[in-house]
Fold:
Amino acid sequence: MRRFIPEGGIINTEENIALISSIDGLRKALEDKIILEAAAESCSPSHDLSINLPCCRAVIPREECAVGIAEGTVKDIAIISRVGKPVCFTVSEIREEFGEYTAILSRVEAQRHCINEYLTALGGGSVIDATVTHIEQFGCFVDIGCGISSMIPIDAISVSRISHPSDRFAVGDKIKVILKGYDGEKFYLSHKELLGTWEENAERFRAGETVRGIVRSVEPYGIFIELAPNLAGLAEPRADVFAGQTASVYVKSINPEKMKIKLIIVDTYDYSPEKKCEYFITSGKIGHWKYSPDGCQKVIETWF
Structure:
């Protein structure tokens, strides 16, 4: 079973449930250094995490709660915010006193395994799974394995410009990301390269048809309508149109040489379609990605 995945991915598996349900199971996990998962039940005043195990009391000491806590590079809010959520861990010690067992756990060790045995071994351009954990104006934070957090900058989320990462994602979304590289224990991510090239997106539309889009930007010279996360067209200015609206648009023309799609707005309405990213690449490794069509004067590409 793959264990270097975003937290919550193994908590309900048969193997995980069996191992956390008995002292013998915990002993096996201790001996074999198996990564397990369970829910964090509470956080003490000293910021130790109490973990909900069926077989015994369990605790993750503060400095074992996350990589960076002991060094002071990660704040304690990273511990407090785990209460009520799944956390991964390895078993460090099983103590017995008066017939009662207490398991001492380490999330740090699980994260170290993930970094050393998985993430740093992947190399730039690798496509991996991630879970959205937090959204800010400047980017989207994701769990890329065992609770290790990294950020997708807003300009790396999609080619079609968005005003806020929440235009594309919601907390809890299971997504794909590209590992661009790392510096120590800091990992750099991108996302837009997975959403298809201009041609791959544009070939789904035909001049003369009317389709749905999202108003992303209203400029003096025109209105940008997103037809897909990596494709937008330009419509003529209208006074009654606002960013965030859904629009029905008539496709006037498609010009690959200039990467331009001309649109005519038929109508606009306040409706928020389901956020959904259609991935053209879902696994493997990318060395080079070129968004712009061959022969186009403007070249948009990424090298990994």
